[in-house]
User: Which sequence fits this backbone?
């Protein structure tokens, strides 16, 4: 290696050594200030976190009440209006709760965010809504199925068959009998009422809080019974019994 090459490396090392030396001298002279600044920064963050936790403790009852009222669905506006604070604060709080409970946050059509928290009540409603009502066959479908299911009736057996059909309970009696059994406890659950009204369980779930639900259920009920929904017991009662 030539002397010029060694000399160029030495100059380059000196160029790097001077700034590093000044930086070391500066840190040694001001290390107390840096340590104090870092401690103040950490103390400020701890204080802010403590204040946030205290504030969350005060908001938790409002949050729990809204979750019960809205079947697990809540928006930042709902929380901000009920708690009388800003929307950004409500959104930050709901983001924290969504992470804590594993909730889902979906964007609504108007651009707002809707948070869905799964509770035991909402989970039971989801299970009920997944049970479809029994499908009724049309007259054409019955005509297609009957020849397959039923063997041809002989003339001698026709009279015995008529007697047997007359002895069977009518459709109205069949409906009343299960209702009397179901109303041993004085009420029906959502899936039972849906089967009685011949609608989906999700339809009953969506309409149960409507003011016209009794009249709507009366029009669907085979006996013309009006039903009312109790939020306290999560069950459905005949209107006459509920008002008495």
Assistant:
């Amino acid at each position: 290696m030539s002397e010029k090459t060694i000399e160029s490396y030495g100059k380059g090392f000196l160029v790097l050594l001077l700034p590093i030396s000044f930086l070391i001298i500066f840190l040694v002279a001001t290390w107390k200030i840096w340590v104090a600044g870092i401690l103040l920064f950490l103390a400020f963050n701890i204080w802010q976190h403590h204040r946030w936790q205290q504030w969350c403790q005060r908001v938790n009852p409002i949050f729990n009440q809204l979750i019960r009222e809205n079947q697990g669905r809540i928006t930042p506006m709902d929380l901000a209006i009920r708690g009388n604070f800003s929307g950004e604060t409500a959104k930050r709080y709901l983001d924290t709760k969504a992470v804590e409970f594993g909730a889902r946050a979906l964007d609504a059509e108007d651009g707002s965010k809707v948070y869905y928290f799964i509770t035991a009540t909402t989970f039971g409603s989801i299970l009920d809504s997944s049970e479809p009502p029994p499908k009724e066959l049309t007259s054409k479908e019955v005509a297609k199925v009957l020849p397959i299911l039923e063997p041809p009736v002989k003339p001698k057996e026709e009279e015995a068959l008529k007697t047997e059909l007359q002895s069977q309970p009518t459709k109205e009696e069949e409906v009343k009998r299960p209702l009397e059994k179901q109303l041993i406890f004085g009420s029906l659950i959502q899936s039972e009422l849906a089967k009685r009204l011949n609608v989906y369980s999700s339809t009953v779930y969506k309409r149960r809080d409507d003011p016209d639900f009794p009249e709507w259920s009366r029009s669907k009920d085979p006996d013309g019974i009006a039903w009312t929904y109790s939020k306290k017991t999560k069950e459905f009662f005949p209107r006459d019994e509920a008002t008495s």
Q: What stands out?
A: Confidence is low (pLDDT under 50) at residues 145-150, 171-177. The first strand starts at residue 73 and ends at 74. Residues 124-243 form one domain.
